[in-house]
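Exercise 7. Given the components listed, write out the predicted structure of the assembled complex. Treat all entries as one system.
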Amino acid sequence: MVAHLLRLKLTLLRNSIKRSPWQLVGLILAGVYGLGMLATALVALAVAGSVGEPQAIGTAIVLAGSALLVGWLVVPVLASGLDMTLDPARFTTYSIPMKSLLAGLALSSFIGVPGAVTLIASMGTAAAWWRHPGAAAAALLCGALGALTCMIASRAITAASTSLASSRRFKDVSGMVVLVPLVLMGPIIAGVSSGISDFSEYLPQLAGTLSWTPLGAVWAVPADIAAGAFGPAALKFLIALATLAALTWIWKVCLAKALVTPAYAGSAKRSPGKLGFFATFPPTPAGAVAARCLTYWIRDPRYSAGLIIAPLIPLVMVFGASQASGLDALGPIIGFGGAFAAFMVAWSISADISYDNTAFALHLATGVDGRADRAGRAAAAGILALPLGLLFALAGAIISGDWASLPGTVGLVLGATGAGLGMASVLSSRFTMNVPLPGDSPMKSKPGNNFSSVLVQLGGFAGAAVLAAPVAIVLALGAMADNPVFSWLALAVGLVLGAVYVVAGIRLGGAEYNRRAPELLQAVSVDR
Amino acid sequence: MTNTAIQPPGAGLPPALSIRGLSKRFGAKVAVDGIDLDVPAGSFYGLVGPNGAGKTTSLSMATGLLRPDAGAVTVHGVDVWAQPLAAKRLMGLLPDGVRLFDRLTGEQLVSYAGLLRGMDKDTVAARVKDLLQALDLAKDAGTLVVDYSAGMTKKIALASALIHAPRLLVLDEPFESVDPVSAANIRDILHDYVASGGTVIVSSHVMDLVQRMCDHVAVIAAGRVLAAGTVEEVRGGQSLEDKFVELVGGRNQTAGLQWLRTS
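Answer.
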């Protein structure tokens, strides 16, 4: 049975590659990336083994190993099912003995780039102990044990969180909320690391503490053996075994519960007669599309995740800039960050039809005109993007007290939003992307699928940047000439160009849509 | 067996749906192999065939969702692929196996379908109310479609197809997972619709249902039309199910699963 599960995972991987050459390209890229990381890690370990003191090596390995385990714990929660190729829920009907299911699922985690890299790197810690044969042997064993702990920990936390959060609403919200710390990760890490100035003193102490916790115990055993401290080594090994046993038990209990509890769908009920945005938008095809899209921006976590992240972008930029050049640049940076955030929201509609998935068939069946479709989608994104950008522009002006440059910043917001909407309107009528399916977590992705999407996205980004460039150039000239007239000029240029881009995007995209709508539907039908 | 079911010339009204030489292949697999079919105006037309026969593919091409490799389709004389917007105004479509905009409430979804077709607000509002009432969905009008059961989802999709009062209704597996009471209600609605001059095409693999409900039927297998005409012509004295099995073949003549016995 265990062998069957492993074979199933391999077959699924092979079939996913067969479906599209891009999947293969993505897998190869991931593989090359993984191998690169692996090679770096192994060389570093071997070098450390030749020149480093056992104490220092131990510290490094305990810290890295603990971080690895934390990573395996945190990532599945963030991504709520990053790789659910073998979703236990799909085995409910097969009455597989629990033991076989657990063993099969745990081992199958190693099939795939992240699992395989973790296993080899963990066991590769033996390379660092080549001068201490006893420790090296222990490192092989503990490495395998540590890697297994990582897999089971991630499985356990996935099972636990799914059995806790089986309501749709909870999933929607949690999927978005966890994105916030992820976006702010850079500033947080920078803040924490600058706070701890005496790094070199602090680290061994941290490692010493960690080595007695479930996180670090398994990684600390070889170091203790190398140092001849067999008592602590044995104790830490016991802690490691107990950790693994406890995690397996948690996983088993949660899985057993999940297997007999069907997913419960929370129901949100409104009283009839409330049409929401449909009542406020003009009753035309374009108005209906805009109302539907705006409803989705709020109700579909795949859209609202973007909406939550976008306002954080200027804050991240401000943080980066304040580190580099102090607080003087704060105002302008907030304004420019706002323009970028508005652009990002506008740009989201480049994957609109892909997000619709086969629900797009309704647009096709009703024979809605391409221009109405494009215009509605652009209007919904624009309604959200513009106030966001203008708010940041205003905030920037208030903070810096530099009201003369406000018109220019507003011009940049208008130009960037227009460029994003126009470019995305054309692009999304030509290309579909691999995106999370309706109802999936915003972070979910299939293995190795994103290469072609990334190319299209990069192309569109570059194109939109070129389109928005004239406004930026006027602003730059104004900064050099130090003349407020340029600020008003930038506003005019941004206003006119933004409007032209939106109209041109809707026209061109609409014509392309009318030509290719059936092909678009077929392209999104591949993923469902 | 012929591969055609063309209405004889001079038979009165132009057919509601006319298909000529329709073909589609996916890679090496021929899904639809040059189908000819006429659906007379005012008929209740059943499309039956085994799984994978090409029913959904044919209907997708006939309704403008999937571009055919070859062939022509006209709806009441309007070419679907040359004048898609005009043709789609005449058709209401319930596709099978596609998602809905399920983050809308039932009421919003049906209104959306109406507004997308350019209907005015008051008509949409009135018809949405009537449709939800007729399909027993009135009390769930404010529930998100994602939280609907499978049968309710079918019904709300049907309402979206009916909102603009089309002249031709194309329903792909409309009764799948719909409960018997709702199915009877839907049948009544469809019969009234046909009686008032509309044309309905349903695909199904429930032969009994097609025999009772439809006046015309076409049997499709492996991308070809095996038989077509009135239900009486096609079944020729047998039950439609027996005739279907005879036409399509594939019944196992072995003794069955010997080990699958409880005693």
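Discussion: The CA atoms of residues 84 and 446 of chain A lie 9 Å apart. Residues 485-525 of chain A form the longest helix (41 residues).
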